[in-house]
Structure formats: structure tokens, C-alpha cells
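Chapter summary example.
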Amino acid sequence: MNYKILVLDIDGTLTNSKKEITPATRTALLQLQENGVKVVIASGRPTPGIRKVAEELELARFGNYILSYNGAQIINCQTGDIIYQKTVPTELIPAIYDAALTHQVGLISYEGDGVIAATSIDRYMELEARINSIPIREVPDFPNYITFPVNKCLMTGEPEHLAVVEEALKQQFENRLNIYRSEPFFLELMPQNINKAYSLEKLLNALHFTREEMICCGDGYNDISMIEYAGVGVAMTNAQTAVREAADYITASNDEDGIVQVIEHFFAD
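The structure predicted for these 269 residues follows.
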């Protein structure tokens, strides 16, 4: 099969445990793009948190793409154009805020190049800000503060408690929001239908590619949709069990240049 597009999650997939792209992985991805293969970064991170990775891989030079907020936004790195975007319905923000207070979990969203916290800043919110290298601040009266479109909200909390909250919110917001965990301590509240697979289908249509020509690599729960959708779904050895079970191929871990192994196995000349 002549694969034309490689889609990569960032944390736990493209980057190692130090949140770095190794020289071997960077070199392999630059060569892949030189050979005409499209490379897409697909992450739950906000757009500002992906820019450094996109620059390191020179996605703009090759006319490639980033898919941020778990698919709520797709951007052409070369032109800066938004290819696709969907936002959380503004009328749901008060109910989301009330749910966070009721279940005693943290709640954040994003404004410009920063994280905004609806509740007291906890260690998981600080982790989100640190991962993305963007500032975080608490805002008063979150429901009335949000007068602008937001691509997603994120709840934070201890994994066991957040698992219970996830099920409760799926019932509360059924058919209005797409809700799932990207990490055990991160609960994503997304626009309805939005996940990585849904948005990748939009991108494939724009590029006139088929899903059979696409390979998707990931390690987290939010990667399952694209791993199942792709022509070849790849899980890292370090992936969550459910992710490995959904995959067609298991590669080496993110600390062992697993992406290089994928490139050598599926894109060999």
C-alpha cells in the first residue's frame, strides 16, 4: 500500500518522556516530508501548545497541518488558514460550570495563548499549562466571562473520581457534547461529534485522500477513534491497554523512537 499521510499524537507518541522529539525521530519525519508524505500533528493540546512542535518539524515549509483541541480545529501551518473548526455551544457553558462545582472537579478552557481556570488552579491544570508552555490564570464568573467561542473545555481531577464524573456527564450532556478522557486525570468536553477521527475525515476530504492511505499513531484514550478509523492504526508500546487493543500494529515506545520504527516499516522505499 502506498501510504500518503502520517498522523501523530504528541504526548506519549511523538515526544519522549522528557517531552522532547529525539534527533532520530525529527530526522526521519523531515525525510518523510521531503519524500512527499503528509505529516499531521493531531493532539488534544490547544493550538498554541502545538506551534513549537510544528516549527521543530518544519510543517509550514512542507504545507502540512495541525489538528488541535482533539479535532475541534484544523490549521494549515503554511498559510495559517483554519481548514475546519467547531466550538462548544455557548449556552452550555453555565451547565458545564455548574457540573464542575457539583462534582468538585477542576475546569479550564482557553483564551488566546493562555489557559483560563474557572475554579481554583490545581496541579493538573498547572500540568496542562506547563505541557503547552502557556500561562494560566483564574477568571471570575466563568459562565459570564466566556463571551467568545471556545473549542473545548477540560475538567481535571483524580482518576478514580473523574471516571465516575465522566459517566455522569455523558448522561447529562447526551447528544450535546462529546465527552471522554484523554488522560486518566483529564476529561475532555468537546463539541458534539468531535474527535480526532471525525476531523481527520474532513482533512482527508480536503486533500482528496482516503482513510486507507492514512496511518495514525497514538497512545491515549483520545487516540482510539483515529486508530480505529485509519488504514493502519498504530499504538505505542507505552499506550493504554484499550489503545493497544484497538490498534493494527504495535510499535516501540515513545522512549525508543517508536515513530522511526513505523516510518521504516510502512514507508520504506
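To summarize the output: The chain has a mean pLDDT of 96.
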